[in-house]
Specification:
Blueprint: H1 2-13, E1 20-29, E2 33-42, H2 48-69, E3 72-75, E4 81-84
Antiparallel strand pairs: 1-2, 3-4
Protein backbone atom coordinates (compact mmCIF):
# COMPACT_ATOMS: atom_id res chain seq x y z
CA UNK A 1 0.00 0.00 0.00
CA UNK A 2 2.82 2.38 0.86
CA UNK A 3 4.49 1.59 -2.46
CA UNK A 4 1.33 2.45 -4.37
CA UNK A 5 0.98 5.71 -2.46
CA UNK A 6 4.62 6.58 -3.12
CA UNK A 7 4.20 5.91 -6.86
CA UNK A 8 1.06 8.05 -7.01
CA UNK A 9 2.80 10.89 -5.16
CA UNK A 10 5.83 10.68 -7.43
CA UNK A 11 3.60 10.76 -10.52
CA UNK A 12 1.81 13.87 -9.28
CA UNK A 13 5.02 15.66 -8.36
CA UNK A 14 6.74 14.85 -11.65
CA UNK A 15 4.21 16.68 -13.81
CA UNK A 16 5.28 20.12 -15.01
CA UNK A 17 3.31 23.30 -14.53
CA UNK A 18 1.51 24.42 -17.66
CA UNK A 19 1.32 28.03 -18.85
CA UNK A 20 -2.12 27.68 -20.32
CA UNK A 21 -5.63 26.79 -19.28
CA UNK A 22 -7.22 23.51 -20.38
CA UNK A 23 -10.95 23.65 -21.15
CA UNK A 24 -12.89 20.44 -21.80
CA UNK A 25 -16.47 20.55 -23.05
CA UNK A 26 -18.53 17.40 -23.29
CA UNK A 27 -21.90 16.92 -24.96
CA UNK A 28 -24.15 13.90 -25.10
CA UNK A 29 -26.26 12.80 -28.01
CA UNK A 30 -28.40 9.67 -28.23
CA UNK A 31 -27.05 9.14 -31.77
CA UNK A 32 -23.34 9.82 -31.23
CA UNK A 33 -22.97 9.18 -27.51
CA UNK A 34 -20.64 11.30 -25.45
CA UNK A 35 -18.39 13.67 -27.43
CA UNK A 36 -15.74 15.74 -25.66
CA UNK A 37 -13.61 18.56 -27.05
CA UNK A 38 -10.44 19.74 -25.34
CA UNK A 39 -9.05 23.18 -26.07
CA UNK A 40 -6.06 25.04 -24.70
CA UNK A 41 -6.28 28.75 -23.92
CA UNK A 42 -2.99 30.64 -23.84
CA UNK A 43 -2.35 33.22 -21.16
CA UNK A 44 -3.07 36.78 -22.28
CA UNK A 45 -0.13 38.82 -23.53
CA UNK A 46 1.26 41.11 -20.84
CA UNK A 47 1.32 44.83 -21.49
CA UNK A 48 4.33 46.31 -19.68
CA UNK A 49 3.15 49.90 -20.09
CA UNK A 50 -0.24 49.12 -18.56
CA UNK A 51 1.42 47.30 -15.66
CA UNK A 52 3.61 50.34 -14.96
CA UNK A 53 0.57 52.64 -14.98
CA UNK A 54 -1.26 50.27 -12.62
CA UNK A 55 1.75 50.23 -10.28
CA UNK A 56 1.94 54.04 -10.27
CA UNK A 57 -1.79 54.30 -9.49
CA UNK A 58 -1.45 51.74 -6.68
CA UNK A 59 1.49 53.61 -5.14
CA UNK A 60 -0.36 56.94 -5.41
CA UNK A 61 -3.33 55.39 -3.61
CA UNK A 62 -1.09 54.06 -0.83
CA UNK A 63 0.66 57.43 -0.43
CA UNK A 64 -2.71 59.20 -0.25
CA UNK A 65 -3.87 56.78 2.44
CA UNK A 66 -0.65 57.17 4.45
CA UNK A 67 -0.86 61.00 4.27
CA UNK A 68 -4.48 60.93 5.50
CA UNK A 69 -4.24 58.21 8.15
CA UNK A 70 -0.64 58.64 9.39
CA UNK A 71 -0.24 55.05 10.62
CA UNK A 72 2.29 54.33 13.35
CA UNK A 73 3.35 51.12 15.01
CA UNK A 74 2.75 50.34 18.66
CA UNK A 75 3.20 47.18 20.69
CA UNK A 76 0.50 45.76 22.92
CA UNK A 77 1.11 44.09 26.29
CA UNK A 78 1.91 40.76 24.58
CA UNK A 79 4.45 42.28 22.20
CA UNK A 80 2.25 42.11 19.10
CA UNK A 81 2.68 44.96 16.61
CA UNK A 82 -0.47 47.07 16.23
CA UNK A 83 -1.10 50.02 13.94
CA UNK A 84 -2.63 53.18 15.36
CA UNK A 85 -4.22 55.66 12.96
CA UNK A 86 -4.71 59.43 13.25
CA UNK A 87 -8.33 59.22 12.02
CA UNK A 88 -11.25 56.86 12.47
CA UNK A 89 -12.09 54.41 9.68
CA UNK A 90 -8.54 54.09 8.37
CA UNK A 91 -8.37 50.43 9.43
CA UNK A 92 -11.14 49.82 6.89
CA UNK A 93 -9.36 51.58 4.01
CA UNK A 94 -10.78 55.09 4.42
CA UNK A 95 -8.52 57.62 2.70
CA UNK A 96 -10.62 60.81 2.70
Amino acid sequence: MKTLLAIATLALLSTTAQAWQVVERCTYSKFYGRVCTTSYLDDPVRNAQQEQEDERARRASIEKWEAFCKPRRTYDEEGVVRLVYARKGCEFGRSE
